[in-house]
Amino acid sequence: MKAEIICAGFGGQGVLTIGKFIAKAGMAEGKHVSWLPSYGPEMRGGTANVSAVVSDEPIASPIVSYPDILVALNQPSLDKFGPTIRPGGVLVVDTGMCPHGLKRDDIQFVAAPFSSIAVEIGSMRVLNMLAIGAVIGRTNIIKYETIEEDLTAFLKAKNPDLLEQNLKAIKRGIEIGKL
Predict the structure, then answer these.
(1) Which residues have C-beta within 8 Å of that of residue 165, sequence separation ≥ 6?
(2) What is the C-alpha to C-alpha distance for residues 163 and 159, in angstroms, rounded to an integer?
(3) Whole-number Å distance between alpha carbons of 23 and 35
(4) If the chain, 179 residues long, is cut into consecutive pieces of 10 residues, what is the mean pLDDT of each piece?
(5) Which CATH architecture has domain 2-178?
(6) Is 49 in contact with 70 (CB distance < 8 Å)?
(7) CB atoms within 10 A of CB 166
(8) What's the whole-model pTM score?
(9) Nearest to 134 by CA among 110, 115, 150, 101
(10) Pairing label, strands 90-94, 69-72
(11) Which of 114, 109, 55, 62 is nearest to 82 (CA)?
């Protein structure tokens, strides 16, 4: 198994964190991983993307040109990376932030208004966890339990309310990914 992933969106949406948590979970599960962030010149509000690879075999290069999975949290990211998704790949897309969508019939779509759902859960800060959940729900490249353990270690003492919201968001994302 090898999954090449690009997560892209505006700075502040947590796209780099998506890639980081996926890579950390893969590593905790004994897989080979890479994580390669790319920042736009502006940081928050500018564009950011991250490439992550999770594999059972050693990874020759961290550079992802044709992802198996694309998480697109804004239209500019979808426009840039959508055409590069491998046929048969998966697009996780925030329909509220990507009004023009993507016209392809050779990929799987996991499309939902993730930004609106994040607000319903209680915070835009969980947008990225909804996306991670959708990736898990559709692909099973990592296990929910691994992410839950990592998030709990990271947030339990620091911000237990945000931990609860994040775990709720991941579970909701998994449900969406399975549709």
Answers:
(1) 121, 122, 123, 125, 126
(2) 6
(3) 6
(4) 96 91 96 90 72 97 96 96 98 96 95 97 96 97 96 90 95 97
(5) 3-Layer(aba) Sandwich (3.40)
(6) no
(7) 27
(8) 0.93
(9) 110
(10) parallel
(11) 109
